[in-house]
Amino acid sequence: MTYDAPARRRLAWPSEAPTMTLQGAALQNYNNELVMYIEELCQKRGELYQQIQQEEEEKERLQGEVRQLTEKLTCVDESLQLKIASLNDLDRTIAETEAAYLKILESSQTLLNVLKREAGNLAKATASEQKSSGGKES
């Protein structure tokens, strides 16, 4: 019979055992750090999401204000245009009225001059008639 030697298993040398333990500890540390950084990133994401929500709400509020102000500006602009048109109409009416008034003044002055002249002529005619009739009244 032949004797077969048992298969040799590699035995861990005492110096290799701490290396395995150190590697396991390092792996655990890496895992802990990864989890910590992932949690930190998730927290930052949550904070950023909150900021985005707040800014979107602010944006909507500001857009609403812009809409309201735009509508108000449109109303004020339309009112202003109507008032400017009315002012222009009044200016034109005043200018036309003043021009007509000046013509009336000129006509009144002319009429007054004519009346004075005629009154003077009438007074002369009456005075010369009285002289020629000898001052007698009829």
From TrEMBL:
Answer yes or no on keyword Coiled coil.
yes
Keywords of this protein's UniProt record, alphabetized? Coiled coil
Cross-referenced InterPro entries, in alphabetical order?
SSNA1_fam (IPR033362)
Biological process GO terms, please? axon extension
Q: Which residues form a coiled coil?
A: 38-79
Query: Per its UniProt entry, which superkingdom is the organism in?
Result: Eukaryota
GO terms under cellular component: axon; centrosome; ciliary basal body
Q: Report the PANTHER family cross-referenced here.
A: MICROTUBULE NUCLEATION FACTOR SSNA1 (PTHR28661:SF1), SJOEGREN SYNDROME NUCLEAR AUTOANTIGEN 1 (PTHR28661)
| Identification of the protein by name | Sjoegren syndrome nuclear autoantigen 1 isoform X2
| Lineage summary | Eukaryota, Metazoa, Chordata, Craniata, Vertebrata
